[in-house]
Amino acid sequence: MAFKIYTKTGDKGQTGLFGGMRLPKDHIRIEAYGTVDELNSYIGLLCDLIENESIKAELLEIQDRLFTLASHLAAQPGKKLSLPELLDSDIIYLEEAIDKMDIVIPPLKSFILPGGDAVASHCHIARCVCRRAERRVVTLAQSDEVPELVIQYLNRLSDYLFTMSRFICHLKGKTEIPWVPRK
User: Fold this and answer.
1) To 10 degrees, the CA torsion angle through 70, 72, 74, 75?
2) Which of 40, 119, 127, 137 ranks highest by number of CB atoms within 10 Å?
3) Whether the predicted model's global pTM rises above the 0.85 cut
4) Is 1.20.1200.10 the CATH number for 25-75+87-178?
């Protein structure tokens, strides 16, 4: 049976969580998982722009984890639901990917301006969206229970995306632009 894309249940400014509870569409919980969805879409764009197959595979893994993460944010608090697990190994996966890129790229000696290459710039934008998602989740965690790994994963993912931007510049032989503050 096919599902219709429109349900009309949100026409009055509310949306449903997994578990049945309805919340206003501007609720911090909806904002949090909506921003994770935006991040996931941006990573999909990165995946389409990057030609390196191993990087694409990493990004697809990350997209899968972001769906897992979003499912926890979109779940009704306190309701027993069967959700996919976010694991410590998911964070280790990001750390190991960062470490592999760090071995190849030159050491960071100053702040760098976002840019240097179009794909690297998209990595920086994804990093900014990731940081916003992290802020929204931290705000949610002040009033509702949020699995600790959700915040940790987003924090590490922003580090991954920053490192990826540098790695892309390096792979393409592009020069990063150091920030030189005015004196």
Assistant:
1) 160
2) 137
3) yes
4) yes
